[in-house]
Amino acid sequence: MPQMGESIFEGTITKWLKQPGEKVQRDEPLFEISTDKVDAEIPAPASGTLQDIKVQAGATVQVNTVVGTIAAEGEAAGAAPPAPGPVAAQPQKPAAAQEPSPDIPADLSANEKTGLEREEQGAVLEVGEQGRVRSSPLVRKIAKENNINLAQVPGTGLGGRITKEDIEGFIVKHGAAAAQPAAPPVSEPAPPAPAATAPLQPVAGVTPGEIVPMSVMRKKIAEHMVMSKRTSAHVHGVFEVDVTRIVKLREKMKAKFEQATGNKLTFTPFFARAVVHGIRKFPIINSSVEGDNIHYHPSINLGIAVALDWGLIVPVVKNAEERSFVGLQRAISDLGERARSKKLKPDEVQGGTFTITNPGIFGAKFGMPIINQPQVAIMGVGGIEKKPVVVTDKDGNDSIAIRSMMHLSIGYDHRVIDGAVADQFMAEVKKFLENWNEELL
């Protein structure tokens, strides 16, 4: 399991792209993983034949855990030595009859033994007369957040250790409320937890009525959104913008632009460029809260939300203020394409200072987006539609004309940004878009 960034400590294997006995080439995609930062395809570290899979799809393991073995070219893949003992996070049958402090299997490598010994230092929780429950700090954190008594959770890890899958499976089955410490049950079974304790996300191809566990990405999105609503004092504002000039310019230039740059001309870089202009005038929009302080970020790192078939991800265009219009389009197209093909690196979804999300691509007039923490503002881009609009000429004469209109919404943290500042920022973005200079393209 690769490290995939300094802040990432574990990953979930979501899919094996090769099966035992199949040949693999170095750098060929071997399996897919999901972490709390990004979904990614992991390339094979060497050429040869996939000898065995030690960690099956769906399992979550710590970084540097051996998840499979590749036999070198010329080495007999079928003549593998006896399988090593299970790694710390690999599920196995509960060892109910074992001693509270299990021995490290003798047939593990020196590195694996060291890893298990290191994990044991912080993995034991005393629970009085019921003996010792083995769990990692992450498992204990999940248990605390959901009021789980770990003594009630069967462990399937090494020596009866409670893994992340064990605690999450227990919550899905029993619900957080059902697991709160209580008096020992009598002969009657406890009532089942209500279905509302495990909200589900619709999945393509799923049979109605089927219960499907949340993916790692879905759970992280849920945690992040709930945390943001608790953290920031959300306020929203909506502005109507006349983008007729931009629509006509894009239609006129899109073929020439694609021929010259190799990228399709989308609307997103127009909005990105306008946001950069607005932030330069109102830098507090590009800040974050750190305790009792406001951190004004020196660079404008734009997060561009990308809808995926399996969730949502926000890759970041770093130093957007230094990029030309063409540079913004190239960066946005590249990040979006690699997000959909699971090629993003963890640092490409971190460090954002302002986010743009586009519900209008699916027909919404506007959205009320949730702030992407630790940022303090987010802009939603609504759909563009032609409407009859009252237009006033330079002499003050009014007429009705067909214009391409849209709505832009701003979600901001009222702890830091006042309504007047948010509105002034959006008025500047609106003005920039409505008076777009063709030379900026």
CATH class of the largest domain: Alpha Beta
Q: Name the assembly state.
A: single chain
Architecture of the largest domain, CATH level 2?
A: 2-Layer Sandwich
> What is the CA-based Rg, rounded?
27 Å
What overall form do the CA principal axes indicate?
globular
| Number of H- or I-type helical stretches | 8
Work out the number of β strands.
20
Distance between the termini: 44 Å
Category by helix and strand content = alpha+beta
CATH superfamily of the largest domain: Chloramphenicol acetyltransferase-like domain
Q: Quickly count the domains.
A: 3
User: What is the name of the CATH topology of the largest domain?
Assistant: Chloramphenicol Acetyltransferase
Average predicted confidence as pLDDT: 79
Could you give the order of the helices and strands? EEEEEEEHEEHHHEHHEEEEEEHEEEEH
Helix content: 25-40%
